[in-house]
Design goal:
By secondary structure, the chain is mainly α. About 50% of the residues lie in helices and about 0% in strands. The protein folds into three domains: about 15-110, no CATH class; about 120-310, no CATH class; about 365-540 and about 570-605, no CATH class. The longest helix has 24 residues, at about 285-310.
Length: about 625
């Protein structure tokens, strides 16, 4: 198990210090003369200081934290009279740096977006795709962020074909449209503090809100597309809106977009229909590949969403062949903008394994239905699914081993596997509602060879999620991680929280809580869930034990701090027990895993039972 970095870890990455001292002195540098020399000077001043900044500075250097984040940290860490203030490099973009994880909140700075976009892997134009901005650098930055961090997890459109057509600026393209581009840019703003601080023509809306508004306008325009007239780019844009709404928590629009996308895929005949032959003499290779990506991508999204929220998946079968596993198997991935150091992405192997896992997820979500249809006991169905899950993990290629520091989408795939294990073991689909009720029934020995019960298997998976989160945080930080990680963190936290012998100082619980606090700050849904989590912990009345400790971990200080006005980030009325918990946490039963999943569903995608054609007055229509 990984532990926190010890205070005697003083190894200095000399190559990283050399990078700081030599980078950016050329005439093309967007920063003013002397910027990097002053940065290096302040790095050494912080290391020499007696204020405990050495370990944080060394960690940032070793983890290849971007230099502008180090500059921001130094401006807070060093005394005002000592820190050398950075001149304003450009009036083009005003930003407020938002530091990674626990870095103190900084003062406003100026940063030219070109500082990042000089190395942006995706160079694409703003026009004619969006009316929100004509800044090619900003659009290239946002597209690069999305392609680096969000795209690989679902990969429901063909990256190469999309970028080629966007670069050409051809509005008649089958693979790129203003609807698709604006939906993508709205999603990408979730990762970029640079985009979030723009204002538009005096309006207080952010750039992300403007991209979303333009995408919604195009959605109305494309609402007439039905049946064979449905454009693939429209379906892909609809899936992007599902992603965006599930982060914003826009009432029931998450499920609305997902259901509409599935309907469109059914109308095209690529899911839930007879096998569809994709002939090369009728379709281009680009179109065939794009159709395959979209069909199998929506299958993955559907099984992730419905299994996460303990409901039967809607996509039963994919009607087109799967992509070849080794096609373009040597693409590289680099953690833009953290570092330019690249590594193999293994994208097609990953996508194939994700499809295999999606079939198992589909059967987990439909286990009750399968038991009814086959006349086999539900426990036997779950035993069979458990065996398939174990075999899936056993068959993973060695290159997917977390110890080999793979790309984050591979780490997320393993987290998805363990989240499925927890969902399966908690048996929320049929017999059991929580561990508490499970203990009153005959234990389900999912692993007869080891004699492990379902709660033990779930607990082991929760600790594995904690370990993977620690690896991810060490390698890439939590700022850019895909939002699915928040779900996996939540199910792991509540699995630990529901144990009868739960220890609030459990290292895995602390690691997960720390990561949750960071990733939840990126969205309204995350903030609401984090508040719900704090109430859950407080309801255990664990503060009595913490009061006896001389040193209280920072993660728990915030949770057990005195209530302050306006602390609750959740929307009024979202949870029936929310106010009671807030008023008197120890008087309420501790919300469990099922309660959290229900709250998560309401906050992110809404209520699936709501009729598809029901809309609030004034909202968009299809």
């Amino acid at each position: 198990m990984l532990t926190y970095r010890q205070s005697d870890d003083t190894h200095i990455d000399r190559s990283a210090l050399s990078r700081i001292s030599n980078e950016g002195f050329g005439p093309e540098s967007p920063n003013p003369p002397g910027y990097y020399r002053r940065l290096l000077h302040d790095v050494f001043e912080a290391i020499r200081s007696d204020h405990g900044h050495q370990q944080e500075i060394l960690r940032m250097i070793q983890d290849h934290v971007p230099l502008h984040q180090i500059r921001t940290y130094l401006d807070q860490a060093l005394p005002e009279t000592q820190a050398v203030k950075t001149e304003e490099p450009s009036k083009k973009v005003k930003v407020q740096e938002i530091p990674e994880d626990d870095t103190p909140q900084p003062r406003p700075h100026a940063m030219d977006i070109r500082y990042l976009c000089d190395n942006a892997p995706c160079k694409v134009p703003a026009k004619p795709w969006t009316n929100v901005t004509d800044d090619d650098d900003l659009v290239s930055h946002l597209v690069s962020l999305y392609m680096t961090w969000d795209y690989p997890f679902y990969a429901f459109f063909d990256r190469r074909t999309f970028l080629e057509n966007m670069e050409k600026g051809n509005l008649n393209s089958d693979f790129c449209s203003p609807f698709l581009v604006n939906a993508l840019l709205a999603n990408a703003c979730d990762y970029s503090q640079y985009a979030e601080v723009y204002t538009i023509a005096g309006d207080t809306n952010t750039k992300g809100a403007a991209f979303l508004a333009e995408a919604e306008g195009y959605m109305r325009t494309h609402s007439f597309e039905r049946g064979g007239d449905t454009r693939l780019a429209t379906l892909q844009a609809t899936l992007l809106l599902y992603e965006r709404y599930s982060v914003l928590g826009n009432e029931d629009f998450g499920y609305t977009m997902l259901h509409r996308a599935i309907e469109m895929a059914e109308e095209l005949g690529i899911v839930n229909s007879e096998k569809l032959s994709l002939r090369s003499h009728q379709l281009s290779e680009d179109m065939i590949r794009s159709i395959q990506r979209t069909a199998w991508g929506i299958f993955q999204i559907d099984t992730i969403v419905h299994t996460n929220f303990l409901k039967p998946s809607r996509v039963r079968e994919v009607s087109v062949p799967r992509l070849p596993r080794e096609e373009n198997g040597h693409e590289d991935w680099a953690p833009y903008p953290i570092s330019s150091h690249s590594q193999p992405s293994y994208m097609n192997q990953y996508f194939d394994e994700a499809c295999n896992l999606s079939y198992i997820a589909r059967d987990i979500s439909r286990s009750v239905q399968i038991a009814d249809e086959t006349k086999v006991s539900l426990n036997q169905v779950k035993q069979d699914v458990y065996n398939r899950l174990c075999q899936w993990e056993t068959d993973l290629p060695e290159i997917f081993d977390p110890k080999g520091h793979p790309a984050p989408h591979i780490l997320l795939l393993r987290m998805r596997y363990h989240a499925l294990m927890i969902n399966l073991c908690c048996d929320n689909f049929g017999n059991y509602s929580s561990f508490a009720t499970m203990e009153k029934r005959v234990p389900m020995n999912l692993d007869p060879g080891k004699g492990a019960t379902a709660p033990e298997v779930a607990l082991a998976s929760a600790r594995q999620i904690s370990l993977i989160i620690q690896l991810m945080r060490t390698q890439y930080g939590m700022r850019y991680v895909h939002q699915f990680a928040m779900y996996a963190i939540n199910v792991a936290i509540y699995t630990l929280l529901e144990q009868a012998d739960f220890d609030i100082l459990d290292p895995d619980f602390l690691h997960l809580t720390n990561a949750f606090a960071t990733i939840s700050s990126r969205s309204q849904v995350g903030k609401s869930l984090y508040h719900f989590f704090k109430l859950s912990v407080r309801s255990r009345d664990s503060g009595q034990r913490l009061a006896t400790l001389e040193v209280i971990p920072a993660e728990l200080k915030e949770i057990f701090a005195a209530h302050q006005a306006g602390e609750a980030n959740s929307k009024p009325g979202r949870s029936d027990s929310n106010q009671d918990l807030k008023d008197n946490p120890s008087s309420m039963p501790s919300p469990g895993l099922k309660d959290m999943i229900g709250e998560y569903e309401k906050l992110s995608v809404g209520r699936e039972e709501r009729p598809f054609d029901h809309r609030e007055s004034g909202n968009f229509e299809f």
